[in-house]
Amino acid sequence: MWRNTKDRELRDRAAEVIPGGMYGHQSTAMMPEGFPQFFTGAKGTRITDADGNEYIDYMCAYGPNLLGYQQPDVMRAVAEQQGRIDASTGPSPLIVDLAEAMVGMISHADWAMFCKNGADATMMALMIARAYRDKRKVLVARNAYHGSMPWNTPRPAGVVAEDRAHLIYFDYNDTQSLADAAKQAGDDLAGIFAAPFRHDTFADQSLPDAEYARTARRIADEYDALLIVDDVRAGLRLCRDCSWETVGVRPDLSAWGKVLGNGQPISALVGNNRARAAASRIFVTGSFWFAAVPMAAAIETLRIVRESDYLERLTAIGEQFRAGLAAQAVEFGFGLRQTGPAATPMVLFEDDPDFRLGYGFCREAMTRGVYMSPYHNMFMNAAMTETDVAQTLEATGAAFEAIKKSRASLKPSPVLAALMEA
């Protein structure tokens, strides 16, 4: 039987010593009531919370779990490297090995730099774009998420106007809006940020239109600015290269994170020779950016990416997951919108403006051992099996039945409602 006594106790303790009780994207403040905040175990496709409840995890640590938690080959590389050297006075030779591996895999890449988080990588990309021709203006799609730095955090408390003074916004997949933004920047255009596909929170996902992607490339060339693809969320889940290879467009820079070390803390920025001199001019660093253990994990992860059918398997599993949910929605009389790639599914209910159906559904599934999000895209991983999908659909079928019976009494999250209104 599902329980959350220990989680509630931990929340009470956390509220005394952590601002807000928890912070960042892994805070459960916006999740349905009772969703666990604290976890004590993870293996393969499953996570275990502080009360011992086990879940099939469709959030995959919000992306980093690509191959399965504690994938044996990756963990073996981690253990072996921990016995040699990790963070030290200088990097290990693995930094060269990893840079060579990424340059060898990513079509537009001539060099690579490493850091810890996606926000580090996108911040580096922003700096390099501005250093490239000493220009200031950067184009960013409205509502696109590129990290939590002041220039783009979705919650602007503590941010001043100067932090965003040189950002110009356009509508994703709208070539005219993009062209107008570039015209507004004029001779001061430094770079264009592009998400590999539209993956805004609370909204349907949409794949990039090829003409939109080509327009972004053309404008960057015309204005002698850098085109940046933020592949932190989608990298290696759409293809074994930069995600915009799927539409035939190569950027100057691409930011990578999440999956790179299959859960080990490492991210990267890769670029072409056009951007090399600018990358050499900026100063960026971190005490743990050069640590060897995450690099060993990344090297092994990339080997598996190159040599296995991980991508085909997680895509097929994602398609099975979607097909099962679609059939259940019809059976129980609900409308579902399933958008974006099968590997990063977004599942939203029709006629659910305040997300009360999504919240009720995900909570019912959670108490039956399936962890999903009612407002954020989810993630598939290569360890998932048909058995996992079958067990998931058993839980979601019961969840559909439960919310059909209690539909009139379902309530939206007051925190989410306030956030959406703001």
TrEMBL record:
Belongs to the class-III pyridoxal-phosphate-dependent aminotransferase family. This is Aminotransferase class III-fold pyridoxal phosphate-dependent enzyme. InterPro entries: Aminotrans_3, Aminotrans_3_PPA_site, PyrdxlP-dep_Trfase, PyrdxlP-dep_Trfase_major, PyrdxlP-dep_Trfase_small. The keyword Transferase applies. Transmembrane segments: none annotated. It comes from Pseudooceanicola pacificus. Keywords: Aminotransferase, Pyridoxal phosphate, Transferase. Pfam families: Aminotran_3. SUPFAM superfamilies: PLP-dependent transferases (SSF53383). GO terms for molecular function: pyridoxal phosphate binding; transaminase activity. Its cofactor is pyridoxal 5'-phosphate.
